[in-house]
Amino acid sequence: MELDHLVVGALTLDQGVAWCERVLGLSPAPGGSHALMGTHNRLLNISSPAYPRCYLEIIAIDPAAPGPVGRARWFDLDQPSLQQALRAQGPGLIHWVARVGQMDAALAQMRSEGVDAGEPVAAERGDLRWRIALRQDGRRLRREGLPTLIEWAPGGPHPADRLPASGVSLQRFEARDGLNVWLDTPRGDVRLSLLA
Where would one find coiled-coil regions in this protein (predicted)? Predict the structure, then answer.
């Protein structure tokens, strides 16, 4: 299991971009839309020697897209408590996603430990293909800072491989008693903690 990406939630993508420019000192690269979930994103390469192939995703509900059918959006984006926090505090770090090589085995291991991490769901954006573990209720795994699991298509592209160097690099990451990350940025050292 490796850190794949950090997730910053925002009420709107424009607010997320403004947050990135203000807090990290630069504008994120274009992302795209997720038809499966009715969300859209912007991306920022934060790879470093300690955390290769790592990026930051700024995500928001896409007002121009229909919502998902029969399930909630990922990362608690449909939850009133998260929407209220984003309204009150602005964009912020809401979750992390871990890359695994064998999704089914990883989920079986988590189930054996009493953790409902969801079921693998196929997703795509452009030519990117992946499977992501999702619960029907869309809830993040808050217990012990557990991540959402992702398995990229074998031999296929990964977002970080295409993103330009950003000048932001992940220096440290902790997900034991909450979620904390330390970034080297054009604005100096920046610490992000889980949005309350």
Answer: none
Q: What is the pTM of this model?
A: 0.95
Q: Is 40 helix (H, G, I), strand (E, B) or coil?
A: strand
What domains lie within the chain, and their CATH numbers?
2-193 (3.10.180.10)
pLDDT in tens, 113-133: 999 999 999 988 888 999 999
Burial, 126: exposed, middle or buried (Cβ in 10 Å; 0-12, 13-18, 19+)?
A: exposed
Which three-class secondary structure state does DSSP give residue 16? Answer: helix
- Please give the C-alpha separations between residue 178 and each of 11, 162, 192, 194, in angstroms, as whole numbers: 22, 30, 11, 7
Rg, Å, the chain Cα set: 16
> Which CA distances in Å does 162 have to 25, 44, 157?
21, 10, 8
In the block, tokens 């997703």 appear at 123
What is the C-alpha separation between 71 and 1, in angstroms, rounded?
A: 26
Widest CA span in the chain: 44
User: Angle at CA 147, nearest 5°, toward 184 and 19?
Assistant: 40
